[in-house]
Amino acid sequence: MKFIIATNNPDKLVELKRILNPLGIEAVTAKQEGISLDDVEETGSTFMENSFIKADAACKKTGLPAIADDSGICVDALGGAPGIFSARFAGEEATDEDKNNLILEKLKDADNRSAHYTAAVTCVFPNGDKLQVEGKCFGEIAREPDGDGGFGYDPIFLYDGKSFGNFTAEEKDKVSHRGNALRMLQKELKKYLEENNVNQ
């Protein structure tokens, strides 16, 4: 069964595929189907609203079930920022390293370094049905980047004292915000497909 993954982020696609493949779902991007989602504007005020906007647009454009994730990091000492602006926190052209350095700079004198990742995932079906889940992972911001694994803010996010940048993909899936959200989605999706007699 083919699902559109509404993302242009290759790292997110890899994580989503790892968790959806066991359900017999073939995850493809809109781009792979020859469709552009570049004109979809994330105008929501929450992760969940933005994930729905992306999934709904992808479903309508392709006629296929679509899954979208909107995720980011929320730093307590920054009032929950960067939050939904995580990808654009240091500017549109900023690298992951730029974004990490900006947070470290803002927290250079902060004792409170608690933070959490949030991932909101929406699945929209052509008949209008939708499934929505949200996963979180709580940790803290490191004093300096560590490790070159993962992506985004992973090198400065500490979980149980260890940077996500030093986690293997499998280790990260077990505890991450996206892993938590997708396990919930996996259960919801399995139940939905069975109840609606959708052949996988």
Describe the model:
Helix 4 (169-175) crosses helix 5 (177-195). With 200 residues, the protein is an alpha/beta fold. The longest helix is centred in the last third of the chain and has 19 residues, at 177-195. The protein contains five helices and seven strands. A seven-stranded mixed sheet has the order 2-1-3-4-5-6-7. Strand 1 (2-5), helix 1 (10-20) and strand 2 form a beta-alpha-beta unit. Helices cover 32% and strands 23% of the residues. It has a single domain (2-195), classed as Maf protein, CATH 3.90.950.10. The radius of gyration is 17 Å and the shape is globular. The mean pLDDT is 92.
Q: Say what the CATH topology is.
A: Maf protein
Overall 3D geometry? globular
Unreliable spans: none
**End-to-end CA span:** 5 Å
Beta-strand percentage?
15-25%
The largest β sheet comes out as:
7 strands, mixed
Q: Let me know the average pLDDT.
A: 92
- Proportion of residues in helical segments: 25-40%
What is the chain-wise order of helices and strands? EHEHEHEEEEHH
From the coordinates shown, what is the CATH architecture? Alpha-Beta Complex
Calculate Rg over CA atoms. 17 Å
How many domains in all?
A: 1
Main structural class? alpha/beta
The side-by-side strand order for the widest beta sheet comes to 2-1-3-4-5-6-7
